[in-house]
């Protein structure tokens, strides 16, 4: 069993109270820095009647209202383009000449934002945390990592800094190059690790026999490093990917350059372990996604994660509601013994649907549907006939049945899936089955919605 270590080794022996005291000091310094350097933050503080000198630590920070969201960040970027001639936002705190890297969000829900804009010191700290993540899951110096994401200006590029700092060798292939290129490069270079989205990992497994004449399990991978989708909490998906590759699959994330975390070396899934409390307060700050009121960060709490940078120079965030709905876990990890906070991703606030007054997340729907494998493939789409979040019943789900599921079995299967969704999520959907292979596999994030409006 591989031990999960903090980015700062000193935190491995600190108590929870000592880690929070460390964060308190960093909060005071970061808020003063942002107030001094950024007109955006000065305006935000003033609009909410906040004197940053009154914020003395984590408890005061948690009581503050949300100051930023995706739309605020986009408006900040638009204002800086108009006034200052750059796209990094009015919340940029470092001089332009100190910027070392910029990368954007995917833009799947709107105009891309330059959330991943860093100074050299920012990159050094963040890449160190990412390198710790890779070392924790077992990546060794000199090992090859086939890295298959959209490259260039996109956020996943920052992981390459961490891989190199961990002394691994990334073989980075832009996922847009296509399945054949990725698989042939895997066969040629025989990497020890594959890093991509879960959807792409499954698609590569399906296409490998046709393209390279072998199963992916014959490539000899030691592990998969997966991100970009809510996958590990879906029943059976982790076990299915690990079985087909013959290797452990790990869940990792760094949303907006914060909350660096990963799952541990375990058959069961115990959430993503927060290994860098000196970089942000994300694991300690949750809000209700509807009322925006703070939620006590107790074991089992579910809420929207709020990001506050603690040492970022270039584009820090303060009370940034980024949209990830998580469940907080505070007990000791039963697998690796990690004593820090862990989270399981529940869904995205901007994906939330309201069906007859019930709040539902697509990831939760997919999780229930996946329980009916092998009668279904696990792929599905939620049909939207009008803009969300409010859905006029019934909610329509298009679900791929498995090749071996006969037409005579579908009516009963639909009834059982609908009953499970009503029992678990209090919704009464209409199930429409489609043949296996109907939904095209995406090389980036697989969409959950079929928009007909």
What's the gist of this structure?
The chain contains eleven helices and 21 strands.
Give an overview of the whole structure:
The chain has helices at 16-37, 39-47, 58-63, 70-84, 120-136, 158-165, 179-189, 198-212, 237-245, 362-370, 410-425; strands at residues 99-103, 116-119, 144-149, 169-174, 193-196, 223-226, 248-253, 261-262, 272-274, 286-287, 294-295, 302-307, 320-329, 342-348, 353-355, 358-360, 376-384, 390-391, 396-401, 430-434, 449-451. It is α/β, with parallel strands linked by helices and 453 residues long. It has 2 domains: 1-349, 3-Layer(aba) Sandwich (Rossmann fold); 353-451, GMP Synthetase, Chain A, domain 3 (2-Layer Sandwich), CATH 3.30.300.30. It has a 12-stranded mixed sheet with strand order 4-3-5-6-7-8-9-14-13-12-10-11, sandwiched between helices. Strand 15 and strand 16 form a beta hairpin. Helix 5 crosses helix 6 (158-165), helix 7 (179-189) packs across helix 8 (198-212) and helix 10 (362-370) packs across helix 11.
Name the descriptors:
453 residues; alpha/beta; Rossmann fold; GMP Synthetase, Chain A, domain 3; 2 domains; twelve-stranded mixed β-sheet; 22% strand; AMP-dep_Lig_C; Phenylacetate--CoA ligase family protein; ANL_N_sf
